[in-house]
C-alpha cells in the first residue's frame, strides 16, 4: 500500500514539476499543462478557428499520445478497440470543451492555477466536484456507454499517427499552418522540452491511470483516495516548482490572474459541466488523450469532440476571456448541462428497460 501511494504521489509530483518548468521556459503562466487549451490551440493552428491569440501546435499533446503509445506497446497493453456509443462520446466531448473554455482551463489547469495562487480555481474545484457528484448519481443507477469491441489495427494507430503528423507540421511550419504572433498562443517552451515533458507524462500516466475525474469520483463514490493522492502530488509539487522557478509570477488572489476571469458563477457552472461530462465519459481530457494513445478509438472520438468544441467555442463566441464570460458562452453552458443530464437519464432509462426485460424473460422461463 505504501508503495502504491508513493508511486501515485510521485506521478503527480513529476507532472507538477514539469508543468512549472514548462512555464519557466516559455509556456503561459498557470498553463504549464492544459489539455483543453492545448487542443484549442491546435484547432486554431490548423485553421479550425480564427482566434488569433490562441493558435499553436502544442507538442505536449503529441508527447502525451506517443508516450502512452510507446509504453503500451512495450507492456503489451496496446489494444485497438472502439464502438462504445461513439456519437454520445462525441457530444459529451464537445460540451466538456465548452465547459472548460468558459472556466478557461481543463481540470488539470484548475489544479495548476491554484498552485500559482489563483483562488478562482477554488470555485472551479467546487463546480467540478458538484458535476462529478451529478455524474455519480447516474453511475449508481447503471449508466454505461457499453462495452468496446476489438477493432482493426487502423483504429488503434489513428491517434499516434495524428500525433506524428501535427508534430511534423509544427517543425516544418508550412504556410497553411497558423501561429499566433501575440497572446497565449505565442508563448511556448522549446519544442524539444515540451515534447520531452509530454512523452514522460504520457508514459507515467499510462502506467498509473491517474485521472482528475477519477480522483474526485472515487473519493465521493467509494471513499478511495488513491488517485486523489496523485492530484495532491500535482498541486504540491507544482507549488514547489513555482516557488523555485516562477516565484515572481505567483499571485495570490482572485483579481488579475493570467488567462482567467473572476466570474464565480460561471467558473462554477463551467466546471460543473466539465465534471458531469468527464464522469459520463469515464475520464478527464488528459485521461482520454492517454487512452487514445493506447489504441482506444472511443477516446479518439472524444478528442474529435473536444477539438470540434474548441472550434465552435471560438468561432461562435462561446469561450470566456480575461474580460469575462460572453452571453453565448453562458447559454452554451446551460444547454450543455441540460444535454449531459438528458444523456445520463436516457441511458439509465434504456439500461433499466433492458434489465427489466431480461428479468421478465427469466421469470417466464422459470415458470415454464
Automatic annotation (TrEMBL):
UniProt xrefs under Pfam families: Sulf_transp
What keyword terms does UniProt attach to this protein? Membrane, Transmembrane, Transmembrane helix
What is the protein's name according to its record? YedE-related selenium metabolism membrane protein
Query: In which domain of life is the source organism classified?
Result: Bacteria
Q: Which residue ranges run through the membrane?
A: 90-112, 118-136, 157-179, 185-205, 226-245, 265-286, 298-319, 331-351
Q: Which InterPro entries match?
A: Seleno_YedE (IPR026366), Sulf_transp_TsuA/YedE (IPR007272)
Q: Which organism is it from?
A: Alkaliphilus pronyensis
Amino acid at each position: 500500500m505504501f508503495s502504491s501511494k508513493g508511486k501515485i504521489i510521485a506521478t503527480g509530483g513529476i507532472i507538477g514539476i514539469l508543468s512549472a518548468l514548462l512555464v519557466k521556459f516559455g509556456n503561459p503562466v498557470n498553463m504549464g499543462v492544459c489539455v483543453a487549451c492545448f487542443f484549442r490551440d491546435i484547432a486554431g493552428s490548423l485553421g479550425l478557428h480564427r482566434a488569433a491569440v490562441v493558435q499553436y501546435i502544442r507538442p505536449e499533446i503529441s508527447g502525451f499520445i506517443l508516450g502512452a503509445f510507446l509504453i503500451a506497446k512495450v507492456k503489451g497493453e496496446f489494444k485497438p478497440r472502439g464502438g462504445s456509443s461513439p456519437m454520445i462520446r462525441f457530444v459529451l466531448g464537445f460540451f466538456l470543451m465548452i465547459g472548460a473554455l468558459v472556466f478557461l482551463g481543463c481540470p488539470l489547469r484548475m489544479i495548476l492555477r491554484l498552485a500559482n495562487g489563483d483562488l478562482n480555481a477554488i470555485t472551479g474545484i467546487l463546480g467540478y466536484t458538484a458535476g462529478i457528484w451529478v455524474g455519480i448519481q447516474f453511475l449508481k443507477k447503471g449508466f454505461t456507454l457499453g462495452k468496446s469491441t476489438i477493432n482493426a489495427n487502423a483504429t488503434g494507430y489513428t491517434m499516434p499517427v495524428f500525433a506524428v503528423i501535427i508534430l511534423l507540421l509544427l517543425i516544418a511550419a508550412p504556410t497553411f499552418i497558423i501561429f499566433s504572433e501575440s497572446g497565449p498562443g505565442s508563448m511556448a517552451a522549446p519544442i524539444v522540452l515540451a515534447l520531452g515533458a509530454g512523452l514522460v507524462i504520457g508514459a507515467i500516466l499510462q502506467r498509473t491511470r491517474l485521472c482528475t475525474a477519477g480522483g474526485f469520483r472515487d473519493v465521493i463514490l467509494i471513499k478511495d483516495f488513491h488517485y486523489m493522492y496523485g492530484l495532491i502530488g500535482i498541486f504540491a509539487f507544482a507549488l514547489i516548482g513555482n516557488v523555485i522557478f516562477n516565484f515572481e509570477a505567483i499571485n495570490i488572489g482572485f483579481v488579475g490572474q493570467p488567462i482567467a476571469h473572476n466570474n464565480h458563477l460561471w467558473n462554477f457552472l463551467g466546471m460543473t459541466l466539465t465534471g458531469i461530462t468527464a464522469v459520463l465519459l469515464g475520464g478527464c481530457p488528459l485521461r482520454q488523450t492517454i487512452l487514445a494513445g493506447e489504441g482506444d478509438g472511443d477516446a479518439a472520438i472524444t478528442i474529435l469532440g473536444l477539438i470540434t468544441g474548441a472550434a465552435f467555442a471560438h468561432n461562435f463566441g462561446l469561450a470566456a476571456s480575461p474580460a469575462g464570460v460572453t452571453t453565448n458562452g453562458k447559454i452554451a453552458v446551460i444547454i450543455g448541462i441540460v444535454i449531459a443530464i438528458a444523456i445520463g437519464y436516457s441511458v439509465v432509462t434504456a439500461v433499466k428497460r433492458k434489465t427489466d426485460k431480461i428479468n421478465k424473460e427469466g421469470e417466464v422461463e422459470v415458470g415454464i
